[in-house]
Specification:
homodimer, alpha+beta
Chain lengths: 407, 407
């Protein structure tokens, strides 16, 4: 199974569109619609922030009541519809109703997602225009839709895969947006994934949960967790292939894992102001959960992120961040290596060994740190828990973007 | 009781010095010594990071074994002596021994503190020179000592107070250093406080713990917690005043609280690249611990810090940060106000009301946000828990400082 990166193959029975409804002042695309010609089984994973945006609350309710007859997902950028109270819920419902009317389906069959500024009400005339234009522009081409869900992203994030199994072949395609506010337990990231395979609801939910845990939940851009995080997975069965039984489900999971991991990594690569892509391989922690938390704490540390930006092999900050992760950790049993590149087949240059600086040349470490991608391997020497976290540096550009985001 | 800010009155029986031993390349002061002419009762509060620097481990051991006959505190900047294993412990012990030899006291009577780069060994020739020069330069003047413990601080942090009680008057004086890596549960901050009052060990420890909780543990610069955080309090009794009994102890606590709060706020004001001083009054949270955690999460959020820097009244980011603090929180019961200045006697302009944007003019909020100091009041509407956290913005300058700190 090979990924088709940066574009998405057509998925049987699905059509998409991305248009300018008027939420963004500069005329950029700001409204996306994904429509299935028949009912979909659908699953969702949502932010764990206690402040949940109206579209998150509405989708959770619809997926609880109506998970087997979803027909469309409408997404706007430019406004998060978060911290908007009862008015926000009304606007989220109204968006779904407008889509339902345009497509001749029921409002309960429509999911909605929003991203953008928190605390502003959805400009409903722009939403109306977005629904009108997008429902008239549906096609097989995901490019405009992926562009329409972007906020400070610099490029669309698209991927698809063809999967072969005993019953035939089917397609999975997905898009995502990220940029800032990307953190453990998801982030302001939205993703919609569609497949023309048929799956049982329980299998679909399980597959999405497992895929999310090893992808979107293992990236850190800035440590903030958003009010709007949503990942949706829709299966319409139009390929004629039913995915059931251990072997088929394993193949589906493998494809979905790979696809979501690619989208997650693309979000980090395109993080606000990012100049370095950093892989943190945390190995031999007491538990997998400890390994995740250590990696996430290192990834969210302003001091380590600043050092990545400055190409400074300041490994003491990495070890210090591990020490405050709230997990079991003992510097005297820990060792750290750094290598150039995104992969981690070789541990690379050892820079910390059992509580002490390793014997290495600063120039060798500095040479690795100037690369656009690097991998740190932290061996905690405590147990069998391992996890890989993908993160990035923090640059002057991040501050500029987030200092004037609303202006 | 009035604070004498930015300088420190002489404390009977204590002498101090700050010199250039050679740890800093630019000739700046880098070694400080505080000496009492007689035994002190001493208490300490230390970092909760699992990665504790050698001086922290040594001081914890000495205060456990020998808390009533401390005579000196030696502090170096330029090198943290953290992540340095057994060599680091040997160097910390050797530093104390050099001081003991120079002063004619026992090594067990000397506490040590270090701050600077993590993962480098202490340059012992520079330490030797620092001990030699400082022990020959002891005086009543705290200015050079306060300068010698600085790292990226731009100014020394000094304070003292005269306290009157039934038995007479006594002095408390203290110095601190901070700058970056300042976070909940202390930070890379060092502070030494000396008093010529006499106190029982248990009273002294209790007073320092309580003072630290409402001062150094309520500031956030960048969310990182250091390997070296230390606050020491020494009491030598040379004023002839014994502080005992509820009334005397309350007066001592009040003075110590005020003094530590001033030093803590000075650390935030002088944080790396700081342009805004932000007070977060969290009121009516479920518990005091929840209020602290909500304030600390808001204070550590890169998105809110960037908005402070950009003078953007992006209150949605504040509410969103509260929602991911891991505490009880309900946006629909919450309200938020912002006011100019450091005090919070007036709630100010309401910008969020029970889950919805309040009815206010953006221009009014923007006018407040351009001030060098501002106070947010977040009413959680859940209980009686309140806490005030002091924090700051994040600027381009922070990234520059921490991108090339070691070069």
């Amino acid at each position: 199974m090979m990924l088709n990166k940066s574009s998405a193959d057509a998925v049987a029975g699905f059509q998409v569109a991305g248009v300018h409804g008027g939420l963004k002042k500069d005329g950029a695309l700001d409204f996306a619609l994904l429509v299935s010609e028949c009912d979909c089984v659908a699953a969702g994973v949502f932010t764990r922030n206690k402040v949940k945006a109206a579209p998150v609350l509405l989708d959770q309710q619809r997926l609880a009541e109506n998970p087997a007859s979803i027909r469309a997902v409408a997404t706007n950028s430019g406004c998060a519809n978060a911290c908007t109270g009862a008015v926000g819920m009304d606007n989220a419902r109204a968006t779904a109703s407008l889509v339902a009317d345009a497509l001749g389906i029921a409002a309960e069959q429509v999911l909605v997602m929003s991203t953008g500024v928190i605390g502003a009400h959805l400009p409903m005339p722009a939403i109306e225009r977005g629904v009108e234009l997008s429902s008239a522009a549906l096609s097989d081409d995901w490019a405009a839709a992926a562009a329409a869900i972007m906020t400070t992203d610099t490029r669309p994030k698209l991927v698809s895969a063809q999967v072969e199994c005993a019953g035939g072949s089917y397609t999975i395609a997905g898009m995502a947006k990220g940029a800032g506010m990307i953190a453990p337990d998801m982030a302001t990231m939205l993703s919609v994934i569609a497949t023309d395979a048929a799956l049982e609801l329980g299998d679909l939910q399980h597959a999405l949960g497992a895929a999310t845990q090893q992808s979107f939940n293992r990236i850190v851009v800035d440590g903030d967790t958003s009010t709007n995080d949503t990942v949706l997975l829709l299966a319409n069965g139009r390929s004629g292939v039913t995915v059931a039984g251990a072997e088929d489900l394993a193949a589906f999971q493998a494809a979905l894992d790979k696809l979501t991991r690619y989208l997650a990594q693309e979000i980090v690569r395109d993080g606000e102001g990012v100049t370095k892509f950093v892989t943190l391989d945390i190995v031999n922690a007491a538990t997998v959960a400890d390994a995740e938390r250590i990696g996430q704490t290192i990834g969210a540390s302003l001091l380590t992120k600043s050092a990545f930006y400055g190409s400074d092999a300041n490994w003491g900050r990495i070890v210090a961040a591990a020490g405050r992760a709230g997990t079991a950790f003992d510097p005297n049993r820990s060792s750290l290596w750094v290598a150039a590149g995104e992969s981690s087949s070789q541990p690379g240059l050892q820079i910390f060994a059992g509580g002490m600086p390793a014997d290495y040349q600063e120039a060798d470490a500095a040479a690795i740190m100037t690369e656009p991608a690097m991998t740190f391997r932290l061996d905690c020497g405590l147990g069998q828990g391992s996890a890989t976290i993908w993160t990035c540096d923090i640059s002057h550009e991040y501050i500029s973007i987030n200092g004037d985001y609303r202006s």
